[in-house]
Every structure is written in C-alpha cells, then in structure tokens.
Amino acid sequence: MASPSKNAPLKVVALLLALLSISATAFASDSPFIVSHKKVALQKLNPATERVSVVIDVYNRGSATAYDVSLTDDSWSHDVFDSIIGNTSKSWDKLDAGSLVSHSFDLDSRVKTIYYGAPALITFRVPMKANLQEAYSTPILPLDVLADRAPQKTFDLSLLAKYGSQISVIAIVAAFAHLIAAPSKSSTAKLNNKRH
After folding, report:
1. Are 115 and 143 in contact (CB under 8 A)?
2. Where is the signal peptide (predicted)?
3. Any residues with CB less than 8 A from the CB of 90 and at least 6 apart, and which?
C-alpha cells in the first residue's frame, strides 16, 4: 500500500490539470472583451480659460457581440470645469466583435489646478448572462490646467516661403561645384594605371 505522502503530489498535479482545463474552456467560450482608452488634450483658449478635449475609444476584442453598451465619464468636477460641451455619457445598442466606437466631448476651465481624473465606466450585456458587465477605461495622467508653459518652438513656414528659393539655388550651385571639383573614380583609376 502506498504511503499518503507519495500520493499527495499526484493529487496536486491532477488538481492543477483539472483547473487548467476548466479555465481553458472558460476562456475559449464566445464572449465580448471590452477594452477602452481615454485620451485628453489641453488647449489654451485665452489666458484665463483652457479647454480639455476628451476622446474615449471603446474596443470589443472578444469573439462575441456586446449589447446595451453604455459609457459614463462623470468624474469631471463642476468646481474645476465651468462648462461641458457635449455629453459625458453615450450608449450604443451593440458593439460587434472586433469593432471600435469613439465618443468625445470638451470641458472648459477657468481654475488653475492639477486635476486627477478617474477612468470612464463602460457597462455592457453578455447574451448568456443577466447581470451587466463592467469595464473601465485607461486612467489619464494628472492634468496641469492653466499651467504656465513655455511656448513650443515650431518650424516657421513663412521663413521657408521667404528664403526657400535662395536656399535651393545655393544648394544646386554647391552640388554642381562638388561634381566639377571632385575627381571621378574612373579618372582616378586611369591616372593610377598610367603611373605603373
């Protein structure tokens, strides 16, 4: 008769294999898998007002359709943001497998602060389950609203329009002078053959 200590590892291995096969069949079943990405951009309208543009992308990366999809992003404080342009919530009847929907809205702020936003909430219904399922968007980095930022230096197209023709003529003349002044490889090879 085998001792109990020798059967224990076999039972553990059998239990792990059983759990692995159950989890594999659960993940292989047809179900929606919702992934959401929340993006924000700041735009200073005037020295006292800044606009926060919010875009939320909702993807269904699962193998089945999600129904009654609802997006809610009510984390924006009314103390910081004066006006909301658009809706912070949106609903769709269904989101097919492999598809994407987007929602955007803008907020205006006159308060100088660092704002920590929360992820958006997405609820959806799976055909075989009665309960609503929940998913959350990615969080956003802290927003430095009405911060004193150094102006970004961008390439000035007016300089290109003003001096572009002179620069191109100088470049063509320099390339031509280089071609004339630099000996070609074939003439250098002929000179080396004559010397020998």
Report:
1. yes
2. 1-28
3. 70, 71, 103
